[in-house]
Amino acid sequence: MLxxxxxxxAEGVTVQIWPQLRSFFNGLGYNLELDDEELGVIETAxxxxxxELVRDxxxxxxxxxxxSGTTLLYVxxxxxxxxxxxxxxxWQARSRDAALxxxxxxxxxxxxxxxxxxxxxxxxxxxxxxxxxxAAPVAAGGPQRSELISAGGGKVYLAxxxxxNDAWGSVGVALGRTGxxxxxxxxxxxxxxxxxxxxAPKKQGVFSKLKFWGDDAYxxxxxxxxxxxxxxxxxxxxxxxxxxxxxTVQFLTRLNQELNAGN
Length: 263
Hints:
- The protein folds into two domains: 109 residues, 2-Layer Sandwich (Alpha-D-Glucose-1,6-Bisphosphate, Chain A, domain 4), CATH 3.30.530; 120 residues, 2-Layer Sandwich (TATA-Binding Protein), CATH 3.30.310.170.
- 23% of the residues lie in helices and 37% in strands.
- The protein is of the alpha+beta class.
- The strands form two sheets. Strands 1, 2, 3, 4, 5, 6 and 7 form a seven-stranded antiparallel β-sheet that branches.
């Protein structure tokens, strides 16, 4: 296995998961340079971030797993940055972005376990989606456009019934209503970096005790991924790992409530 390669075991054979992989990368805004279902290879084109002067691409190689009806996915990443060379800027390989690799692999796993690119909330065949504790109810007569979903192991995420472009704006507005402070926005990466005040989770009234913004501020990253007509929202910690803290779950519950209140 290569240094910048991660192996992911997926339920289903290649022909079943291939449309989901294709939809996943298209939802992230990546064009596909290579899309060969028969060979089991997907390779994206470069996607540039003009603000940070970097670009990224991913490659997925699929092969049958040892267990019948499973597939092994080898996910690799390449990154480059613009650097001065004389009076010009040229693309040059940059240091490995392990957090980005891990984030994308986790999102692939979530999308596949969710039962398809079109609906991230649908359970995979033979499995039942596990619901997280419900947020405060929305007004009667109004369907929920956002739902808090448990991915198991203490991991939860928001499934928002909007395409990425609409969801980006909706989340921005909802964040303002939660009182969270947005430190940085990166639309190309689908990332909001927000700050919450550090709170002892066992104390009652988590949000009533938030002091915006003391030295104990807690920073997290909200990663938005467009998957078909829906958008998944995952909270990551400073290291780019799935944040499962009680404060973060409470915050996602509040954000879910605000997204539905704005329906």
